[in-house]
Design goal:
By secondary structure, this protein is of the alpha/beta class. The chain has helices spanning 19-31, 50-57, 73-77, 112-133; strands spanning 8-13, 36-41, 81-84, 98-101. It has a four-stranded parallel sheet, covered by helices on one side. Helix 1 (19-31) crosses helix 4 (112-133) and helix 2 crosses helix 4.
Amino acid sequence: MSESAKPSVLFVCVHNAGRSQMAAAFLAHLAGDAVQVRSAGSAPADTVNPAVVEALAEVGIDISAEAPEVLTTKAVQASDVVITMGCGDTCPVFPGRKYLDWELDDPAGQGVEAVRPIRDEIERRVRGLLAGLLP
């Protein structure tokens, strides 16, 4: 666990515009201040996917002000759990971290109809993750 005794999770995908944004938003929404949440991309896009913003708004989560961020060594080292989503070899691995790889469809270029099932699967996985993080 991180020094703050609060678990820290980093979600990583290539563009930080879809899957990792949804996962971070769900974890922050469900855990509140109990978990430190980060998301980043190995090659971040300019903006978050509008269909992802819309799909999350449908379930009461507003990420319209979020912006993709670049993955840094510091972010990985400051996280207890690193969850990758479709990064392949571009996601760095550092010792002492718990790594999970979530294989999920990429919402890039998809409409909201295609994003909804991805959103729902991410929510299911985040709920499972949260159950293992908190007492």
